[in-house]
Amino acid sequence: MAIDARRAATDTLLERVRNVLGQIKRERAKDSFASVARRADVSRTFLYQNPDARNLVEQAAEAAETNRSHERTTHSAQVEASWHERALNAEEALTAAYREIAQQRTAIGELLGRIRDLEGALPEDGVQRLITENTTLKKQVNQLNQDNRRLQDRLQGARDNNRFLDNRIAQLEAQPIDGAADQDFPSGSTLIRFTGPPATLVGDSRHG
After folding, report:
1. Model confidence pLDDT, tens digit, residues 44-74
2. Handedness of CA 158, 164, 165, 166 (dihedral sign)
3. Residue 2 has pLDDT above 80, yes or no
4. Residue 78 — left, alpha, or beta (φ > 0 → left; ψ -120 to 50 → alpha)?
5. In this structure, what is the dihedral angle of CA atoms 189, 194, 199, 203, given to the nearest 10 degrees?
């Protein structure tokens, strides 16, 4: 009976160790004799001295290390593949850049050739003559702008005078002829009365 009791107690302890090792595997936690003993609530002496318990812990540790090694290998392969893809993309971009540079150089060479052809078609003093003519044209444009500003000022002055004269004429026409005698005039002045139709003023906008 004592042997059966010890065997049952040992089986219970082994079952707790198996359950803890399963939990550690699912949690992907680090397993050791100390951690297994603590979580399974068994002594480390039992784990070291009991062959079945020792085998369970050692096999779980080997399996965990194998899994970690496989994961490291897989991760390294993924990283290497990623860098390989980046290297290929960079190489393609560099090739495209070289091709674009070559096209730009060809276009620049063609433009320089056209410039040389145009320069060759000009006489020796053609460039200097063009510069002189351009300077002369700029001076003429500046002079025309100044003349235009002066004419605008004169036109504005004429318009102001015209408005003043129109207002003055309207005021004079609004005054009755007979009432003019009641106004005060300087001594010695003579009042002149005009008869007949009113004269037409040239430039008066109110008369056609």
Report:
1. 888 888 888 888 888 888 888 888 778 788 8
2. positive
3. no
4. alpha
5. 20
